[in-house]
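A student in our group prepared the protein record below, which I am reviewing. This is what I was given:
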Amino acid sequence: MTATLTKVAPAPTAGTAAPQRRARRRGRTVALLFVLPALVLLGALVLYPVLFSVGRSFFDASGTRFVGGDNYTEMFRDPATLKAVRNTTVWVVVAPALLTGLGLILAVLVEKVRWATAFKLLLFMPMAVSFLAAGIIFRLAYDEDPDKGVLNAAVVGVHDVFRGTSSYPTARARDGQGLTEGADGSYRTTATASPGDTVALGLVGVAPKDLEGAEPALAAAARAADPGELRGVVYLDFTPGGGGKQGAVDRQESGLPAMTVEAVRDGRTAASTTTAADGSFRFPGLEAGAYTVTLPGSNFAPPYEGISWLGPTLVTPAVIGAYLWIWTGFAMVLIGAGLSTLPRDTLEAARMDGANEWQVFRRITVPLLAPVLTVVFVTLVINVMKVFDLVYIIAPGPVQEDATVLATQMWLVSFGGGNDQGLGSALGVLLLLLVVPAMVFNVRRFKGSQR
């Protein structure tokens, strides 16, 4: 039988306790000295502005008269502030959800791409662009003029491929020259014509670029109609260099090709055709009777100009689109990092049991990534609540109020013309109260993951 001997440490004596206490105090003092600069900066740059803003929110615009909670009451009576709250809600609901979803999809797909690193770098590059530069880029991209805005240039190009464009959007008829304008933008002859007649329809205001391929109209105007045929010519009633006679086809005047012409009788289109290069047209085989020759309004419709991306209706989705372009790479990289830590044996076991890729993604990948997805989502919620640069830069002045969020409204009220720092401080306090719960939630998630 053996006995186990335990060595008991001797109790500290009065002679050794004092040096230990001094060493601990010295350690705490050194630690405090190291932390002190950070505490000073934190107090000066965070704590003091917060406390000052809270106090300032209880005073009037001049800061001399105490008004209590009047600024907070006024804040929720102001239509512009209510619109800012509504837009901020749209941002919080839409942007983080879209970004998290896009980041998840891209992170999963990138794993199957051969050049995954280059693809990640390409998507992450917008994060290196400042919000100011990104705002300028998208302000130009969203320009309503198709010659400047790349998005409208693409939209107009696709539209014109399927719907076409009008032949002569700037053309019009002279007053008193035998053509009457209809309510739909069409032109019709004042007098009727019958088979065997020849009519000349003169227009003005045609741009030179619309005359490419046009031939002189004089020969077509002089050609007589065959029996049972109604024919005529549509021409530019303007002689380059001056001269000529209004209402008559002169030698140097061009025909207007590709113009749609209709013969209308009793309100019904009896025949339709398109003018030739010299502007001539003919309706053979018409029944005897009186016809009105009509140039439909489609010949003169203004060109399609695209979508008003920065109008009151679409300005907020347009700015959110710019935000997605910047932050999608961030979400993808964070979720991709979480994806790389997933147990591969679990995924392979599911595949061996017969699960397809969609089932593996929905039932295994997403649940295992739930903590990462939550952190990404909450981080983006905090970020979108403070968005300012993109909204202020992209939204034009006339629709600035339609796109405003709490951060821009706070700046506009305080410094952008309102000059009411009391109300602006109240808006800042409101924004702080909205951000703090999300920040606390995120901090707890980080602590939980560390444990």
